[in-house]
Specification:
- Keywords: Cell outer membrane, Ion transport, Iron, Iron transport, Membrane, Receptor, Signal, TonB box, Transmembrane, Transmembrane beta strand, Transport.
- It is a multi-pass membrane protein.
- The protein has about 800 residues and is mainly beta.
- It has 3 domains: about 80 residues, Carboxypeptidase-like, regulatory domain (Immunoglobulin-like, Sandwich), CATH 2.60.40; about 130 residues, TonB-dependent receptor, plug domain (Ferric Hydroxamate Uptake Protein, Chain A, domain 1, Beta Complex); about 550 residues, Beta Barrel (Maltoporin, Chain A), CATH 2.40.170.
- The protein has a 22-stranded antiparallel beta barrel.
- A hairpin with a 3-residue loop joins strand 18 and strand 19.
- The relative contact order is 0.10.
Length: about 800
Amino acid sequence: MKNLFCILAFWLVAMTSEAQSSLRGVVQSNTGEELVGANVILSGTGRGSTTDLSGKFQIRNIPDGTYILRVTYLGYEPFTREITLPNSEELDITMNSSSLLTEEFIVYATRATDKTPTTFTNVDKSDIAKLNLGQDIPILLNFTPSVVSFSDAGAGVGYTGLRIRGSDQTRINVTVNGIPLNDAESHGVFWVNMPDFASSVDNIQIQRGVGTSTNGAATFGASLNIQTDTRQEEAYGEVDNSFGSFNTRRHMVKVGSGLINERWAFDARLSQISSDGYIDRASSDLRSYFLSGGYYGENHVVKLNIFSGAEVTYQAWEGVPEALLETNRTFNPYTYDNQVDNYRQTHNQLIYTGQFGGNWKANAALHYTYGRGFFEQFRSNDRLRNYALQPVVIGGESIERMDLIRRRWLDNDFYGAVFSLNYLSDNGRLDAIVGGGANRYDGDHFGELIWMQFAGDVNIRDRYYDNRAIKDDFNIYTKATYEASEGLYLFGDLQYRRIDYSFDGINNDLRDISGEVNYNFFNPKFGFSFQPDPSKSWYASYAVANREPVRRDFTDSPIVDRAPQSENLQNIEAGYKRQGSGFSYSANIYYMKYRDQLVLTGQLNDVGAYIRDNVDNSYRAGIELDAAYQVSSKFTVGGNVALSRNKIEEFREFVDDYAAAEFRQEVIVHNNTDIAFSPNVVAAAIFDFRPIKNFEISLLNKYVGSQFLDNTQNENRMLDAFWTSDLRFNYAMRPRFVKNLEFTLLINNIFNQLYEPNGYTFSYFLPAEGATGRELVTENFYYPQAGTNFLAGMKILF
């Protein structure tokens, strides 16, 4: 045994003393562009690297010997070379554009390029991965220009949202692989239904303003165009685990086959996220999966994606009353143990893209999404008449109110097809696309009483309301970019959109909402870009968008004097972009003129629900600056700032008057007021420091100016400005037994700032105490975000 230990010790010493070398180089395209994020792998060793902002890479501690070096980058032919170590030379690797059809064309029709005259930001997989510890996409995009993100539970898990240029999620068009994601009725995107979706995202393009024509609801502030994971050349496995404050946990397993026989690839992901939330009882239990398989021919790609999410989230929708912000910031009025939102949504996408000759490419996709779930509520001393029930008589006493538990259900199907056909002329001067889509939404809305304090004349599955909505959405567009002269590109984009929307049944306020509406929209866009050289670009554009009201506007509309009108937006964008060696910057101005924008005014319908009404004229105007500079190989600084003015020319506020002899609403006219939730300043600054190889320290700062809770510009109904700073540590190592081992520590809000990025308000008149007359009472509710908290994660790549 002693001899065995001696031999083992000698072998270990020999292994550790084996000659070690390093390999370094730079990766460029055949046009001389540095390729950032290219994968560099020594086949069979599990060792590799990715290229940095200068296209450079380095692999350390490699035993001397002969290896096959393999470099891959999306859209380029794989590069292979046999190398022998030691080798002191810096490799100069040039990659050629791929002759194989790539997955980039799946989203090409709805994407802006460097020749498109609109304002956009690209976020790639590496940017997402640095922050991805289980928080939702709105939180991960928080540091991009003009974005304000928030979380109901206060910790970035559960219900989250974002605004871009002051426009909320219902006005931000979102597509996944060119397929609409926004709910067809509310126009919202509920990221909680897609837990850990960021782990299956390859890249996101954020277009601010109207942008280019896309599928789904009209863009009225911005659009998010998401592309899911593309194929990997080599087989891989990945395990991510993270934990943090508020008992937050994330577990993710991901595997991929790589390219099999140069034609087939399969990928799968399974995720589970849980959190207690910062707000009391605002817990989340989230589960999801992503499956993908595809055939990759030289001229044709067929791909099937199936992804699903299930969430059970304790409700934190009510917010914290202003009076409790200083004494109980985590207050949640709900205490019933099953006051939850419970929903599952499954997406199916069958995608084809093909190349025909040297000039034509085509893309088509069939999709089907099924969602079903409910939110459950305990209702204290509720009126039975709200549920179409007669009073319960017990011992001669008529009981009209009692405690009960209700569930409000949504059971919906969304399906359709999208397509695009692209023509590129032989000389490359004309790039034209015809595209469109036809989609149907079929949604059942119904409510049930599952418990009553006293037995009434109702069975457990009886529905006290039940209605169905069908919405057909058809659009077709054509867009083209033409190089009129050297570096001057002309752009045109014409879209026609048709909406047929019908309702049938009883709404939750027990009104018959049966009816039908139809809309026809024409959305033109024109502009130009000028590139005196590949590193500089000027652009300007004019675009029009029209948008139908959301479901609630229609279901409430029969009781008002006039039905809600569609909204119109005219958008002017102009800017300059500069890309240099180690630096980049851009500046743009915008003007967004709204006609008939729908806003909450305080006006009531005939059953006491608050409705939205059109305001004649409003606008947003601003300037956005974005820059990044690599000070040295160890230090990079970047940031953005948006300065804006957001106004409604005339706003009519309706205030409930309980001081009058009979209830009425008083109308107060306001002129030239700020649009709600539209800060005049939004800024971010990021400092990245790399003291040693594979170790990065980042300081992430965010500033959001003050914003108003409604359109009255009343300083008593306001969200205060805030500045937060987060600290992130990333360390990656490449031991022999795995391809990559990465550790991340994210400390959020390191200065423990108390801030609220979201809230709501309402006001009313009451009789004045101890005197005649009346007084105005305003109630503000806020969604506080967590103070200093942390998330830590470990990622293992096999």
